[in-house]
Amino acid sequence: MSKRVLLLRCALLSTVAVLGAGCSTIDKLKTIGEAPPLSPMENPTTKPGYKPVQMPMPTPQPVSFNPNSLWRNGSRAFFKDQRAHQVGDLLTVKVNINDTAQFQDQTQVARSATEDSGITNFIGANTIVNPAKAVLPGHILTTDSNTQSNANGSINRTDQLVTNVAAVVTQLLPNGNLVIEGKQEIRLNTEMRELLVAGVVRPEDIDSDNTIELPKIAEARVAYGGKGTLSNIQEPPWGQQALEVLLPF
Fold first, then answer.
1. Across residues 76-98, what is the average pLDDT?
2. What pTM was estimated for this model as a whole?
């Protein structure tokens, strides 16, 4: 590629960049003194990459009408308990974690051992004249060991998480308990925060407003973390992590 062609391409790219920046500047000048316009409402199913949601659903019940009755089977009644009780129902989990832990351990270990085993008269060695007597063992085993270990460890941890998350009933156990799982994602700029709650609940522990507190969930699993620019900076590079696992010292 000649230098002339390369210079022409660079000039063209620079022109496009300047025009793009100019258009953006003109658009900003037009909106001086005005509030940012809201995006128009669109059909989300027509957007690229849309995928329909598939959630656990209860077994369909046949609809039957009873004579002289205003209600039919499977309908939501005014006086019916609206708390979650079957697969696919939703309930709100109240997460209130305020955990504080302090531990401090100190261990000191010291050990010394000396072994000296010998034979003063090995099979009549005193009757053998030199130099044969010099090659006979006088001491069978002589050892000396000294071990010392000092270890200090301390933990000072404070965790606090207060939020609510909606969970869906994914399974109905034979004893009537409900298996639930809920996931929440919050994206702020380039950082994504994820909250996952799962466990087993009793229908009796669900409050009248269809909420349940975290301590009442058996086998509770709560995961709160993030991913994005900030999390990537805080996490050591994968090469450093591999060396920490492989290196024996």
1. 83
2. 0.57
